[in-house]
Amino acid sequence: MNKDQLDELDLQIINALQIEPRVPWTSLANVIGADSVTLSRRWERISATGLAWITAMHGMDSPRSLAIVEIQCEPGQALATAEEAGRDPAIYSIDLTSGFRDILMTLSTRNDDELAEYILVKLGRLPSVRLVRTHIVNVTVKIGSQWTLRALTPAQAARIPRFRPPRPGAAKVVPQQTMSRVVSALERNARATNVELSGILGMSPQRVGDAIATMRQQGSLDLRVDVAQPYSTWPTVSWYFIQVPSLSISGARETLAGIPEVQFAGVTTGQWNLIVALSARSGSDTLRLEAELERRLPDAVIMDRSMVVRVFKHLGRLLDRSGCATGEFVSLMEDR
Predict the structure, then answer these.
(1) What is the CA angle 230-72-331, rounded to 5?
(2) 310 pLDDT higher than 70
């Protein structure tokens, strides 16, 4: 494998980890048809070159205030603005885009007061900003961890072992301090074994495993695998800004949750009430998917759209111009 491409085995490994990020290589060998040593070495190369990575973060059930923010910059200054914004741990992701907005960012704060501080003060202090438009996310319909490459057959995907539930005797509640320490340790290495994590956390391997299982089951821990978009089989991502009649929102949510190309969908308060990110195999495929979106949501009107020309930051991870992880990471825990 080289950095110029991901072959079929690489894509299958990434897809398998998207389904279960901590699956043992020995459990995956029979599913994919390669021995565990080969799988381990492949993943080491994939992650070392920044072609794919695992992110550990507090789950969607953790109380956070979320917004999608559009930013217009002075001509030629979008990259400088992104570099400054990228240092802020509350700015989870930054896309450089075509169209009306130069930057589209995902902002996540601890509460509504902090969100207001960003909207009213902090975002306007970023260099070369001409306009800020904020959409507060009221309901998250679909997130990136639910999107996969679909490199495995349905039969293969079904055979991948999911994470084990907590033991019957495990504590039902994980203390907040323990949660934060577990997430912080997994940020550094999401595939670390329970034995390795026990040495870091000062807990027995069994307690570590129970804590992780409980947090995942309760939605307070999210593990997700992302791939450098240009090297995937879905290299083109577009954002859609949609207006849907209020009475049709519930049906639109159900429809979007079932469209596999949807990477993100959120019901918002702002200029429009629905924002969707779609992945496509090519620019021409984007047109097909947009038509499909209109067909599946007959009451909706696409008011605007933008194509991602470069991902600058993704869930705290800084990416290079080719979309690969640079190794620099702004911890998502720093603002907690």
Answers:
(1) 55
(2) yes
pLDDT at res. 4: 59
How far apart CA 23 and CA 46 sit, in angstroms, is: 16
Of 48, 126, 35, 44, residue with least CA distance to 85: 126
Burial 51-84 (b: 16+ CB within 10 A, else e): bbbbbbbbbeebebbbbbbbbbbeeeebeebbee
Task: Find, among 329, 17, 256, 290, the residue nearest to 145 by Cα.
Answer: 17
Contact criterion met (CB below 8 Å) for 45 and 5: no
Average pLDDT, the chain: 95
Question: In this structure, are residues 134 and 63 in contact, taking their beta carbons and an 8 Å threshold?
Answer: no
Q: Residues in the chain, how many? A: 336
Angle value at C-alpha 148, between 19 and 335, nearest 5 degrees: 80
pTM above 0.85, yes or no: yes
| 15: nearest Cα among 142, 143, 160, 191 | 160
Q: What is the dihedral of CA 177, 105, 230, 289, to 10 degrees?
A: 110
- How far are the Cα atoms of 20, 178, 303 from residue 184, in angstroms, in the given order? 19, 10, 40
